[in-house]
Structure formats: C-alpha cells, structure tokens
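User: Sequence recovery, please. Input:
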C-alpha cells in the first residue's frame, strides 16, 4: 500500500489512499481504524485500487489539551489472505464553543442598552454549540457588579445600584476552548424608571392613532412602570397618577 493522504474540512477529515496488487481480479477489503473508537470498512470491487472516506472527530481525546495526535490505521486484505498496512498521523484541533445569550426582564426604551430598574429580576438565558459534541463544558455568568459568578449558563440576578453593567456568559470546554457572549443593561432607580417610562408613553401617546407596534412599545414601557415597591422612592400613588395620565392620553389619541 502507498500509505494514505488526509485533507481536512471544517470539523471533518477526508482520508484517501491507494495500493498495488497484481491480482487484478481480487476483491479487497479496506479497514480504517480512526483511533477514536470508530472504524470504517470498505468493500472494493476487483480492479479498484484506491479508496476515500470522510470522518468527523467529535473530540480531541485526551482531555485538557487543545490538540492531539491520532495515528490512523489502514489495512487492506484481498480474498486470498494477503494484506498490507499503513499508518497516517493526523492532528485534531479542539474547536472552541460558540456561546449566545438572551436577556429577559430589561425593556428596550429608546436607544442604548435595555433598561431595568433596581431590584428588578433579570434572567440571562445562555446556550452554546460545540463541534466537538463529546466535549464536556462549564458555564459561568458574571454580572459586572460585585456579586459572585453564577455557575451555570442560565441564571437570574437583580442590581441594587444604578449604572451600566456588562453581563458575560463564558463557556469553557474540557480542552481549554472558550466562548463568550456579552450583553449590556442600564440599571436605573425605580424613580428614574418611571420618568423614562413616562417620557416614552407620553411621546407615543402624542402621535395620534396608535398602531400595533406603538401599543407594543407602550406595553413594554409599562413593564417598567409596574410597582417596584422595594424602592422607597416609588409609591403606588405615583404609579397610579402616571397610569391615569397616560391611559387618558392613549385613549384620546386612539380615538382621533
Ligand atoms: Ca485534547
Ligand atoms: Ca470543543
Ligand atoms: Ca474534549
């Protein structure tokens, strides 16, 4: 056998090889041991003296190394008991996971990061993909304040101090690959949240008849207006006055 040749594509490898055999009428069997617990067997018709097989490595075993050497074993047998072998070495590189994250809780009001009042719950919903499906993974979420890391890919959090924070999901695989996803939030006091919501609502209400999009925007703004009773600056009375004012304007603009 004249060895083999490999060519890599994303996440997979194609192994091609050929051999000489004067017995042109012999059928042959090619066995390829990928050294990852899997093997392929090819039944070749007489006069066929080449082969090609594609394989995807789902892990660069052993763990804790970013790349590993695999010695692929190739054996060709004819139907008369004759055989030959060859070895092809291949470096399999780990591919880092790809992380993504969505936030539930903050409201998009105007430009900039989505807004959330202090003490309001934010849920970070993380996910990831990894070509190396046999890898194991660990996830953490940092909230950008002094609170401890959440040791999972999805978690809830509330802020006590206004400011702009970066929430970061980090996913690490067992071979050192790291994927991250970031989202910013603007944390405001409940009092400021009411002012922001009031401005957004009044601005929308002054635009005449409201379409579904405007109604949806008002609905989102109202999620900020819902009582944040834990903040002593926000009172039910303030919320009631705001609701009465905006509802009156909303109805007036909707009936024009
Ligand atoms: Ca490894
Ligand atoms: Ca990986
Ligand atoms: Ca691994």
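Assistant: Recovered sequence (256 residues):
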């Amino acid at each position: 056998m004249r060895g083999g040749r490999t060519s890599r594509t994303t996440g997979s490898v194609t192994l091609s090889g050929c051999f000489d055999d004067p017995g042109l009428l012999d059928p042959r069997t090619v066995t390829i041991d990928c050294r990852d617990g899997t093997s392929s067997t090819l039944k070749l018709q007489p006069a066929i003296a080449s082969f090609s097989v594609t394989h995807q490595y789902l892990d660069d075993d052993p763990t804790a190394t970013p790349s590993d050497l695999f010695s692929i074993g190739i054996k060709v047998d004819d139907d008369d008991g004759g055989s030959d072998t060859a070895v092809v070495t291949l470096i399999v590189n780990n591919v880092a996971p790809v992380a993504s994250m969505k936030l539930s809780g903050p409201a998009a009001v105007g430009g900039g990061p989505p807004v959330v009042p202090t003490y309001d719950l934010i849920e970070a919903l993380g996910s990831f993909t990894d070509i190396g499906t046999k890898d194991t993974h660990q996830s953490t979420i940092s909230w950008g304040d002094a609170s401890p890391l959440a040791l999972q890919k999805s978690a809830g959090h509330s802020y006590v101090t206004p400011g702009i924070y970066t929430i970061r999901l980090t996913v690490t695989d067992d071979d050192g690959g790291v994927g991250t996803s970031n989202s910013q939030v603007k944390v405001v006091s409940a009092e400021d949240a009411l002012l922001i919501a009031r401005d957004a609502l009044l601005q929308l209400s002054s635009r005449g008849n409201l379409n579904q999009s405007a109604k949806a925007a008002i609905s989102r703004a109202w999620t900020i207006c819902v009582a944040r009773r834990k903040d002593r600056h926000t009172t039910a009375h303030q919320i009631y006055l705001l609701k009465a004012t905006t509802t009156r304007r909303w109805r007036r603009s909707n009936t024009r």
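The longest strand covers residues 67-78.
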